[in-house]
Amino acid sequence: MHRSAPPSTSAGGGDTPLPAPPHRSRLPRAARRPRRTIAGLAGLALASSLLAACGSDGKPVLNWYINPDGQATLTQLAADCSTDDYDIEIQLLPTGATDQRTQLARRLAASDSETDLMSLDPVFVPEFANAGWIAEWPEELASQVVDDDVLSGPAETVRWDDGVYAAPQWANTQVLWYRKSLAEAAGLDMSRPVTWSQVIEAAADQGGTVGVQADRYEAYMVWINSLVAGAGGDIVSDTEAGSEAQVDIDSEAGRAAATVVQELAESGAAQPDLSVSREGTSLPFMFDGPGEFMTNWTFVYKNYEPTEGGAFTQEQFDDLGWARYPQTVEGEESRPPVGGIDIAVGEFTENKDWAFEAAQCVSSPEAQQQLAVTDGLMPSRQSVYDAQELVDAFDPSLLSLFQESLEAGAPRPKSAYYNLISGAIQASWHSPTEVDPDTTPAESADYLREVLRSEALL
Q1: Which domains, from first to last, does the chain contain?
Q2: Comparing C-alpha atoms, which of 124, 260, 264, 224 is closest to residue 425?
Q3: CB within 10 Å: which end of the chain, N or C, has fewer?
Q4: What is 256-282 written as a DSSP string?
């Protein structure tokens, strides 16, 4: 069976931020408490579907809201990180990142005390921190969750206003997955950097396809952002100015990005569901007919890995290739997407000290290793990449490519207004079949300015 695609970027439409509480409170330093070590991560544990302040044995319950990626592993982490003082119970968020944000924002805007831990797409950390919805980590704990072992990209996602507001759990990036036989038939040398135009042409010439995420949801913003960054530009800059951020997408870089979208949409390589395509929809095309080139997240390797009674054969898996994300402009370094999950503590939890302790446990190196080996959700810590378990579980060249892509990646705009920025771009660039480099960047820039200044609604 196919694994479900990472929902950290599978979001539909943009919704406006909910109102923030009237003030932010700063956290006292929290004392660390001993906990059980993580062990036996291979098993499964049942999570309660009911919210409760105490478990059946009278212990406090910490509710951990997770996205569906690696659900079985996260459920076991919750069990293994529970202690004699508290139990951690899983509460499942919707599949889409924007829907996840909406559910959490509604709870936290109402000062919900039972939202103890949450798995956040990194782009929403600034908004939640700025609104006072998630707790700032005490200095001595912050120095542990963003120490020198954490890759610079993931470490930066948890910082806001000189504080640390989450613990990096796993880091995600996209690479170009492809059918080796398709690339060979097209005469495309995948040992060298390739452009989007070359990939589209190669696929079309051989009757193959190109898989992307172009539905009106967060992953479409991810694609556009990397295309623009790969042409040397930004969607917005000076994001510290909030609603007065500089809108930059009406630029040569924006037009280069729109050219790629238009080229794919008008080519024979476009998949039939292009306008509603998501991370999971392009997976079946890899071994269908001539195959495909597909930009997608790190989970793909485990998705196609042959298993006893699985959907894919060793012969098919041997025909799977991977390469650096395509260049928007030939000769300019590509800027792969960057994603992942950060673990935040709710500002209104009545068990803040324990929640910090639990957040450290579920984002520990041992936890990251298991998420990578089992689910293909890659670590945010360098030391975990060097672990023998990962070396045994992944091709060494792929591990190197993942790290290279994370270091060279293009993070989405870091702004407390990110949800508005993303929603405006999604709306004005969708459908991909209507994108025009002569008009779309300029029109989207005007619309984004109006949305940021509350002159237009999403």
Answers
A1: 7-171+340-397 (3.40.190.10), 173-337+413-452 (3.40.190.10)
A2: 224
A3: N
A4: HHHHHHHHHHTSTTB-TTGGG--TTTT
Q: Which tops the pLDDT comparison, 257 or 4? A: 257
Distance CA(158)–CA(95), nearest Å, equals 22
Percent of the chain with pLDDT over 90: 84
Is it true that the peptide bond before 431 is cis, omega within 30 degrees of 0? yes
**Distance, CA of 324 to CA of 402 (rounded, Å):** 9
Degrees, nearest 5: CA angle 186-297-423: 110
The amino acid occupying position 223 is: W
Instruction: Fill in the DSSP letter of residue 33.
Output: -
Judged against a pLDDT cut of 70, whether residue 56 lies above it is answered with: no
Burial class (CB in 10 A: 0-12, 13-18, 19+), 39: exposed
Q: How far is CA 132 from CA 107, 244, 346, in A?
A: 13, 21, 9
Which tens digits make up the pLDDT trace of 96-152?
888 999 999 999 999 999 999 999 999 999 999 999 999 999 999 999 999 999 998
What are the residues facing 387 on neighbouring strands? none
**Residue closest to 173 by CA, chosen among 342, 376, 413, 414:** 376
- DSSP reduced 3-state for 293: strand
* Local structure of 299: helix, strand or coil: coil
